[in-house]
């Protein structure tokens, strides 16, 4: 950490050049000799990345930013806040603290937080930033989290861990066994020191395979933001042996779409099937990641239009964890019939269909956008159809 970066004039320069082209900035020259130019450029780039992801940090004075990789790997404020709503108690230890966003939000719900970060510079940065943010109930340890847990040798209400998804060559990995630390190896240790454990994993993980890797799973939270899956959160509870709950959430600017079910109920369920009715529904990314295709039909009491299409339909409009559409017309997938619709611009989606969106746009010369939504899919009689909709 280089404290001179916090000089008021340098901070003002960083703030006023967030939207400046870095190449042009370097060409003009940076008017500070007491600080390496590279460090100032890194601060500009890192702060810019935080504008939307970490607005609290972005808007707070005297924040020191780590490199871009640390910003990339950290939780967003949106997901960190969601995680904080799942916990309660007096003590929590964050074994892989990183830039400290999750611990910051945990500190609003837990009396005492221990933040462990093995990287000395990053640990110093986080400690400094907590002071700037006015946080007083987080202790920062520049220590390997596993070693700290063993050394402290006491009970916590919660353990939180976000294993590093980079290998020794800085390449991305996502399997539990490839991450550091390997939670498959240490989960027994975690449950020894805490009744509750929260593990953040890659959204790429296979849920069924991971279920077999982890023990005493009480819940799995699948978090999507604006219909993009960001995190899988596994909640372990000491001595828990029942079926776990899957809780999907899609957080948008205006609401949270939620759908919850018992994991084993999906394999026991059979969806209703129907021809397209008055309304069409497309599940959000969190539900699709969960693979909750049959249980969704059962719980909401709405049929699918084909077992493998994963599109749902109803006569009456319902609340739904995803996008909702009014069906204007359903036509066979036929070039002449589609031509009669005189479509030049539309939003195209394919589900259980042999052509890609790109192939369809090219074939029918369709531009992207507009008020119409076209779903190219397959119905219950295995006919290829086009469902023409407007969004609700």
Automatic annotation (TrEMBL):
A Pfam family that the UniProt record links to this protein: PG_1098_Fer
Boundaries of every PG-1098 ferredoxin-like domain copy: 279-321
InterPro entries per the UniProt record, alphabetical: PG_1098_Fer, SAM-dependent_MTases_sf, Thump-like
THUMP-like domain segment(s): 322-391
Gene Ontology MF annotations: methyltransferase activity
GO terms, biological process: methylation
Domain of life: Bacteria
Keywords for this protein: Methyltransferase, Transferase
Keyword Methyltransferase: yes
Record's protein name: Class I SAM-dependent methyltransferase
Protein's organism: Winogradskyella alexanderae
């Amino acid at each position: 950490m280089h404290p001179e970066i916090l000089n008021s004039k340098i901070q003002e320069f960083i703030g006023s050049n967030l939207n400046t082209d870095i190449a042009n900035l370097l060409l003009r020259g940076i008017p500070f000799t007491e600080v390496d130019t590279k460090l100032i450029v890194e601060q500009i780039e890192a702060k810019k990345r935080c504008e939307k992801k970490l607005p609290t940090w972005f808007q707070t004075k005297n924040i020191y930013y780590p490199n871009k990789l640390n910003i990339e790997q950290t939780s967003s404020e949106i997901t960190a806040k969601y995680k904080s709503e799942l916990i309660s108690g007096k003590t929590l230890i964050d074994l892989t603290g990183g830039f400290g966003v999750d611990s910051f939000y945990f500190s609003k719900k837990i009396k005492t937080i221990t933040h462990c970060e093995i990287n000395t510079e990053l640990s110093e940065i986080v400690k400094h930033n907590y002071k700037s943010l006015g946080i007083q109930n987080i202790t920062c340890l520049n220590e390997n989290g596993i070693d700290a847990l063993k050394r402290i040798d006491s009970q916590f209400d919660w353990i939180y861990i976000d294993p590093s998804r980079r290998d020794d060559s800085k390449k991305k990995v996502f399997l539990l066994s490839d991450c550091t630390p390997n939670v498959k190896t240490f989960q027994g240790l975690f449950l020894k020191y805490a009744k509750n454990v929260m593990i953040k994993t890659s959204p790429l993980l296979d849920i069924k395979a991971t279920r077999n890797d982890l023990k005493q799973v009480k819940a799995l939270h699948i978090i999507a933001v604006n219909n993009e899956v960001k995190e899988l959160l596994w909640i372990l509870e000491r001595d828990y042996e029942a079926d776990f709950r899957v809780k999907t959430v899609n957080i948008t600017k205006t609401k949270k779409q939620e759908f919850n079910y018992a994991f084993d109920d999906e394999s026991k369920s059979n969806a209703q099937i129907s021809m397209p009715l008055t309304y069409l529904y497309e599940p959000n990314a969190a539900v699709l990641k969960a693979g909750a295709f049959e249980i969704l039909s059962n719980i909401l009491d709405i049929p699918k239009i084909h077992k493998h299409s994963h599109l749902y339909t109803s006569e009456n409009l319902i609340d739904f964890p995803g996008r909702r559409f009014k069906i204007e017309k359903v036509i066979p997938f036929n070039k002449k019939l589609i031509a009669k619709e005189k479509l030049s611009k539309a939003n195209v989606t394919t589900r259980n269909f042999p052509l890609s969106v790109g192939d369809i746009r090219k074939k029918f010369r369709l531009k992207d956008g507009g008020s119409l939504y076209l779903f190219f899919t397959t119905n219950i009689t295995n006919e290829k159809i086009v469902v023409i909709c407007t969004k609700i």
